[in-house]
Design a protein that fits this description.
The complex is a heterotrimer. Chain A is α+β, with helices and mostly antiparallel strands. Chain B contains 12 helices and no strands. Chain B is globular. In chain B, helix 2 crosses helix 12 and helix 9 runs antiparallel to helix 12. In chain C, helix 2 packs across helix 11, helix 3 crosses helix 8 and helix 8 packs antiparallel against helix 11. Classes of the chains: A alpha+beta, B mainly alpha, C mainly alpha. Chains in contact: A-B, B-C. Chains A and B meet through strand 7 and helix 2 of A and helix 8 and helix 9 of B.
Chain lengths: ~400, ~280, ~260
């Protein structure tokens, strides 16, 4: 079965992207292979001055490699890296003025806190008289002034991270790179540090790129997030856009939770596609050739669960599926449904669809008064077949082969 | 919270080895030391030592021994330092080969190795033949019985003892540290002198202390390579006991040698403790 | 990487290669020489022959010294393993003062001038009336081998996670059984490594032994030096080759069971 997407291709979608003119950091056509393994292939990436950007993706997607390429710790096979107009491709790492905060912080164990912070200044040959003041200022910024003479081995994880940040910032870099800087901290500390760091970087107008596999972290600190997969950037946008309208199925799955239904496009008119899934027919605002195998996604807070026979408001989709799990989560509840096996109309299914396997329905409801079903006001039972409804406008559709 | 009984239990475990060493190793050494102060029947007396230092021949030997040990240590360090880094970076076959090259000579022993070197250094030996063939020299150089040969063969025998401690330290060196240094603006030289060298220093100290103390007390290698012509302290000790039957002299020299060895050991562990004092 | 870094790296590889050659060449040489047909050490050998290996068997006192060395090495290693393991356990698990000092003390014979230790022992034994050379040698060889055992076992015990024993006990094993089934197998590599190296160190020892031998009890190293003085011919190369083969066998055992890398640490 042919599948063709008539809508814009979902490779690198730059929503609200700067024109390359006002980009501060420009990565163009970067490629990197290790032997026969291609890690990054012809990647483009542009960051504005003062922006906080995250590279988000699973292990092996190339985000750390990209970071190291920008830092100059590895050399690219091809492509260019421009920072503030300066071409960096052949500039060695120690001359790029790009600071890095490593996942393990990489503090020098044989130096105390203030010598660690002073290291970059000394390495660059700053006059010795000015160094103590700069170090003191940097330590004050991260609230580590009392620890100046402490050996770094005696610091806690959070303290080490702050020293690493101070060390990276005291040299006034043009760009700051951070490789999973919060991953070694426990959950509670993490959020505090994220807020603190974001405020600090903002106040200095610092341009920074974070590498992370944790979507919450990316959402918390970034102005824009680049979702990476297998060496490509799937979607590069601000958190709100990325969440509401992810450009690819991968981005949909990687950021936030969602409903996922396999389907076949039955017909398509005036940019409205009618898609047949294992639990019903849905409509979506998209252009697809009839017969295309697609994946339908919906964000959980857009769905409401209602008793099976309830009428469907105009402009809404509705499917029927049994409720399989109810997961109470404090302020909200997750309701899971399983799409039934087989296709209602008995039509043949396209490649990669199976018979509804891998499909899931997920509805998220705030636990307000009125019980689980809001308007209906009645409790739900597991196993009961219910109606799942959501606005057509919130339906996300992707070619099945991209999922 | 350990009860006193448990603590005593562990002390008991250590007791056999402790008692053994104390009675049969430390005690004899202490007695030897005391004996050196027992000159001509009166105790305590440093006559044995003054007699030793008064003789310029002895001073020459002392200086030679220390000099050879220093040169050996230096040569071993120069060769071992890069090798330790290469070993840390090597994988698979290359790593096994280097390890084998380090460990096999250790396993084979001093006698076999020194014997091999004595053959190599002979006038009709391989070394001379190779040098002649290359054209570096016109006629066979007298290598055997020279201090150069001694330093080379000693460095050869003790080299693994210099490589392994440095290798142990390099292995634990966080690969991120030189990267961090670079991103902060440190060029390769600054990075080496301010990051790598200080961090490998404990290994260098440990290895150097080891090699120096072994080189200063070595007996087999100088006996075979330089023989009677240029003796070292240990050869003098052997001579005084086995040939001269001068136990007084022997015990004095033994104590001096012991003193040198002990101070190297103590000095290096003090240094090492000071270096790691600032860390965890 | 800058050009400076690349050239430094290349230079280190050259040095390392040179070091490997430097370390192995004398051994290779010895083996080659042992197969010469001439009675001098000229290289390359004019002809290949096994005559020197045959000559070894005929050397006076050779087999006696081999037997003496092997039995001394075996016994002293066994004793060292007993004493050393106990001491190492005490140092790592105990809480009494002076643990570190004990560890340093136990390893110190390695750093002492062997000759001085031998002399001191000789005088001491004579003073207490011990005249038997064999016992004196055994006592001395335990002192020689003990540091190897203690050092290796200390490292192994420090790395061992003792909570594994607690886990075994919560699963129903009694304390002695847990030690036997959990600790012992984990320590086996350390036993093997230290035992092998201790054995070899004892076989090779000269300085401590020279003062304690008598006419009837000569260890192999002492006999070899004697041969070197009396009749330096390629028989020595043959004996040396035998020792090299022994060392290779030991290393092979070690690397198959424990791995060459682990043997070092």
């Amino acid at each position: 079965m042919e599948t063709e997407l008539i809508a814009p291709a979902a490779t690198t979608i730059l929503t609200g992207a700067p024109s390359t003119q006002d980009a501060y950091l420009s990565v163009a056509g970067i490629a990197k292979s290790y032997g026969s393994q291609t890690v990054i292939e012809a990647l483009d990436f542009h960051v504005r001055r003062g922006e906080l950007v995250s590279l988000l993706g699973p292990s092996g997607c190339g985000k750390t490699t990209l970071l190291r390429l920008i830092a100059g710790l590895v050399a690219a096979d091809s492509g260019s890296i421009t920072l503030g107009g300066r071409e960096l491709a052949h500039v060695p790492a120690h001359q790029r003025n790009v600071s890095v905060v490593f996942q393990s912080y990489a503090l020098f164990p044989h130096l105390d806190v203030q010598d660690n912070v002073a290291f970059g200044l000394r390495a660059r040959g700053r006059p010795a008289t000015g160094i103590p003041a700069a170090v003191a200022e940097a330590l004050a910024l991260v609230r580590m002034s009392d620890y100046a003479l402490r050996p770094v081995g005696l610091l806690s994880g959070g303290q080490q991270q702050r020293v690493a940040v101070a060390r990276a910032l005291v040299v006034n870099p043009d760009l700051l790179l951070l490789d999973e800087p919060f991953s070694a901290l426990d959950r509670k500390l993490r959020e505090t540090m994220q807020i603190e760091l974001k405020a600090l970087l903002r106040s200095r107008g610092m341009t920074a790129i974070f590498v992370t596999h944790d979507q919450d972290e990316a959402l918390a600190v970034s102005d824009r997030i680049a979702v990476m997969n297998a060496g490509c950037i799937e979607h590069f946008a601000d958190p709100a856009t990325l969440y509401a309208r992810p450009a690819t199925a991968f981005a949909l799955e990687f950021v936030g939770l969602s409903t996922r239904l396999a389907g076949v496009v039955r017909h398509c008119q005036a940019s409205v596609a009618s898609i047949e899934t294992a639990c019903g027919t849905v409509s979506a605002n998209a252009d697809f050739r009839p017969g295309s195998a697609v994946v339908v996604g919906v964000r959980p807070e857009r769905i409401r669960v209602v008793p099976s026979g309830q009428p469907v408001p105009p402009g809404w989709n509705a499917v029927r599926a049994p409720l399989t799990d109810v997961v109470p989560l404090g302020a909200r509840t997750h309701l899971y449904g399983r799409a039934g096996k087989g296709n209602a109309a008995g039509a043949s299914v396209g490649e990669g669809q199976g018979d509804g396997e891998g499909d899931r329905l997920l509805c998220e409801r705030a636990n307000t008064e009125g019980g689980m079903l809001g308007e209906a006001g009645s409790a739900v039972r597991e196993g009961e077949v219910l109606g799942w409804q959501w606005p057509v406008a919130d339906t996300l559709v992707y070619p099945a082969w991209t999922a | 919270m350990r009860t006193p009984r448990t603590v005593d239990g562990f002390v008991l475990l250590a007791a056999p080895a402790l008692v053994y060493l104390a009675a049969l190793y430390a005690l004899p050494l202490v007695l030897l030391l005391l004996k050196s102060f027992n000159a001509k029947g009166s105790f305590p007396s440093i006559a044995g030592y003054t007699e030793f230092f008064a003789d310029p021949f002895h001073l020459k030997i002392l200086w030679r021994t220390v000099r050879v040990a220093l040169l050996t240590t230096l040569l071993a360090l120069l060769l071992a330092y890069p090798t330790a880094f290469v070993l840390a970076r090597a994988r698979g076959f290359v790593q096994s080969l280097i390890l084998l090259a380090l460990v096999l000579p250790l396993a084979v022993g001093v006698i076999v190795k020194t014997f091999a070197w004595s053959i190599l250094f002979r006038s009709d030996g391989l070394l001379n033949k190779t040098l002649l063939a290359i054209g570096l020299i016109d006629e066979p150089v007298r290598l055997l019985y020279t201090e150069t040969a001694l330093v080379i063969s000693a460095a050869n025998v003790f080299l693994p003892f210099m490589v392994l401690p440095i290798y142990a330290v390099v292995r634990q060196l966080d690969a991120r540290l030189p990267e961090a240094a670079a991103t902060l603006g440190a060029g390769p030289l600054f990075c080496f002198f301010r990051v790598i060298a200080p961090l490998t220093l404990p290994g260098v100290i440990a290895g150097s202390a080891f090699v120096f103390s072994m080189a200063v007390s070595m007996y087999v290698i100088p006996s075979l390579i330089v023989g009677e012509r240029s003796q070292t302290l240990s050869m003098l000790i052997a001579r005084s006991y086995l040939f001269l039957r001068d136990e007084q002299l022997g015990s004095s020299i033994s104590s001096i040698l012991l003193l040198i060895a002990v101070s190297v050991v103590l000095g290096s562990s003090w240094l090492l403790r000071r270096l790691s004092g600032g860390k965890t | 990487m800058t050009r400076l870094q690349t050239s430094v790296r290349a230079l280190s590889w050259v040095v390392a290669a040179g070091v490997v050659l430097f370390l192995l060449a004398p051994l290779v040489l010895t083996v080659v020489v042992s197969f010469t047909s001439s009675s001098v050490y000229t290289l390359p050998p004019p002809e290949w022959s096994l005559r020197w290996y045959a000559a070894v068997a005929r050397k006076s006192g050779f087999w006696d010294s081999v037997w003496l060395s092997v039995s001394l090495a075996g016994l002293s290693t066994a004793l060292a393993l007993l004493l050393g393991t106990a001491a190492a356990i005490a140092v790592t698990r105990g809480r009494f003062k002076g643990r570190e000092a004990i560890a340093t003390f136990a390893v110190s014979p390695l750093m002492m001038p062997g000759l001085v230790v031998g002399v001191a022992m000789l005088q001491f034994f004579r003073q207490v009336g011990l005249r038997d050379a064999w016992i004196s040698l055994l006592i001395a060889h335990v002192v020689v081998t003990l540091p190897f055992v203690v050092r290796t076992l200390l490292a192994a015990l420090e790395r061992f996670d003792f909570s594994l024993i607690d886990a075994a006990r919560t699963l129903g094993m009694s304390y002695p059984k847990a030690v036997l089934k959990v600790l012992a197998p984990n320590l086996a590599p350390a036993f093997l490594t230290s035992g092998l190296f201790a054995f070899l160190a004892s076989m090779d020892n000269y300085p401590v032994s020279i003062f304690l031998t008598d006419a009837r009890n000569k260890t192999l190293p002492i006999k070899m030096l004697q041969y070197m003085e009396e009749q330096p011919d390629p028989t020595l190369a043959a004996i040396s080759t035998g020792l090299i083969v022994l060392a290779l066998a030991v290393l092979m055992i070690g690397s198959r069971t424990v791995g060459l890398n682990r043997m070092i640490h």
